Amino acid sequence: MEVLHIDMDAFFVSVEEVLDPSLKGKPVVVGGIEGRGVVAAASYAARKYGIHSAMPVARAKRLCPHAVFLRGSHRLYSEYSAKVFEILRSYSPLVEPMSLDEAFVDLTGCGRLHGPILKTAEKIRNEIKDRLGLNASIGIAANKLMAKIASAYCKPNGMLWIIPGSEQRFLAPLPIKRIPGIGPKGATRLNRMGIKSVADLARLPLGLLEEIYGKWGASLYRKARGIHNSPVLAETEDPRSISRETTLEADSIDPLFLESTLSYLAEKSASQLRSNRLFARTVTLKLRYSDFKTVTRSQTLDWPTAADHTLIKAATKLFRKTFNRKTQVRLIGVCFSSLTTHPYRQEDLFDLKDGERWDGLYQGIDQIRKKYGFRSILRAASDYVGGK
Amino acid sequence: MEVRISRDVLLNAVHKVQGIVEPKGAMPILSHLHLSAKKDNIIIRATDLEIGTLGNYPANVTTEGAVTLNARKLFDIIRELPNEEIYIKKEENNWITLKCGKSKFRLPGLPPEDYPPMPEYSDKVVIEFDGKILKEMIRKTFFSVSPDESRQALNGLLLEAEGSNATLVGTDGHRLALISRPVNSQNDSKEKVSYLLPKKALSELLKLMEDDDEKFGFSAHENHLAFIHGKQVIVSRKIDGKFPNYRQVIPTDNSLKAQANREDLTHALKRVALLADEKSKMVRFEIQKGSLTLVSDNTDLGAAVEEVALDYDGDEVSIGLNAKYVLDILNVMDVEAVTLNLKDQNHSCLFTSVNDDQYKSIVMPMRL
Question: How far is CA B108 from CA A139, A214, B74, B90, B111, in A?
Answer without folding.
Answer: 80, 52, 11, 10, 10
